[in-house]
Amino acid sequence: MARRTARSGVWAAAWLALASTAAAQQPLNFVACPIVRDTASVPCWLSEYEGRLYFLTLQTDVSAPVTPPWLGHRVLVEGTISSEPSICGGVVLKPVHLSVLEGDASCNTMLPAEDRYNLTFEPPRPPGPSKGRLAFDASAAPAAQRRDTSTPREFVISYAFDGVVAFNHAGVLTEILEFARAANAGAIEVVGYRGAVLLSNGQLMAEAPAIGRQRAEQVAALLQGANLTTPTYTVTWRDEAAPAGGVEDYLSRRVVVTVRSR
Fold first, then answer.
1. Which of 80, 126, 172, 214 has minimal Cβ neighbours within 10 Å of its Cβ?
2. Are residues 81 and 149 in the same domain?
3. ω into residue 34 within 30 of 0, thus cis?
4. Is residue 240 part of a domain?
5. Residues 150 and 102 reside in one and the same domain
6. Are residues 239 and 174 in the same domain?
7. Which residues fall within 8 angstroms of residue 42, CB to CB, at 6 or more apart?
8. Which residues contact 237 (CB under 8 A, 6 or more apart)?
9. CATH no. for residue 184?
10. Contact call for residues 111 and 38 (beta carbons, < 8 A)
11. Which pLDDT band holds residue 23 (cuts at 50, 70, 90)?
12. Which percentage of the chain shows pLDDT scores above 70?
């Protein structure tokens, strides 16, 4: 009897561990107001959904992997619940993708600093001015010249919801530019896509109808404006929104650039 009880306890513990892991890996997509919490080091961004507080990112700059949201605007949060310890009192979403949406004057909550929420780690970049640039960064892709340039190469540019080129696209745009120059590119194909996202509450959000065209034409114009004018350009787009299933829907918001050498 004791052995059976012990075995039952082991199975129960294993089931609880499995359930906890599954919950920690649950995708979560929602639209809400962002919240700023002050700390002794660097402010952090949070958001509340169904009565639970979630950590989004730190207040950094345009060079950070996750761009902070804005007060005065709602934010689309697409993340995965992590098992990491909470930060600033919020459950960690990792990875997380944030998209600033329409203005909302009610999104103005700022929480005061509390000792229990002081961060014990440094922000991801040292103090000082940002090196982010709107389009191209000459230092972003020094290895481009060393790549195999004899075969076509495909580049994917990802976007925020309804977004176009921003500061955080400098690296990939520079990589495309440097590869095209190294390959003596003869043809560049640019395809813009329109995405959609299925929220956790069942609501479907589709991007603006013309966003695929806007993205494709902007990328082509930026490359040509950087004196990459010798290749022939084929610029197309998809007007229909990609299907959305609630998991990694952000991947559908993209431009695909294919560079072919002469």
1. 126
2. no
3. no
4. yes
5. no
6. yes
7. 58, 59, 60, 119, 123
8. 191, 192, 193, 194, 212, 213, 215, 216, 217
9. 3.30.1330.60
10. yes
11. low
12. 77
On whether the CB atoms of residues 37 and 88 are closer than 8 A, the answer is yes
Give 3-state DSSP helix, strand, coil % of the chain, rounded to 5. Answer: 25, 35, 40
- Indicate if 99 and 175 belong to the same structural domain: no
Q: What is the CATH number of the domain that holds 58?
A: 2.40.50
Residue 159 structural domain? 144-261
Strands (E), 104-152: 110-111
Residues present in the chain in total: 262
> Diameter of the chain by CA atoms?
82
Whether residue 133 lies inside any domain: the answer is no
Domain boundary pick from 82, 99, 117:
117
Tell whether the model's pLDDT for residue 137 goes beyond 90: no
| Structure-token match 């090196």, residue found | 131
pLDDT for the residue numbered 41: 84
Residues 255 and 149 grouped into a single domain: yes
In a domain, 139, yes or no: no
pLDDT value of position 257: 98
Residue 7 lies in a domain: yes
Q: 231 with 184: CB under 8 angstroms?
A: no
Beta-ladder partners of 132:
none
Number of domains in the chain: 2
Burial of 219-239, coded b for 16+ CB within 10 Å and e otherwise, reads bbebbeebebeebebebebbe
b/e map 163-181, b = 16+ CB within 10 Å? bebebbbbbbbbbbbbbbb
Same domain, 45 and 83: yes
Q: What is the pLDDT of residue 122?
A: 52
Predicted confidence band of residue 252 (pLDDT cuts 50, 70, 90): very high
Tokens of 17: 């561990």
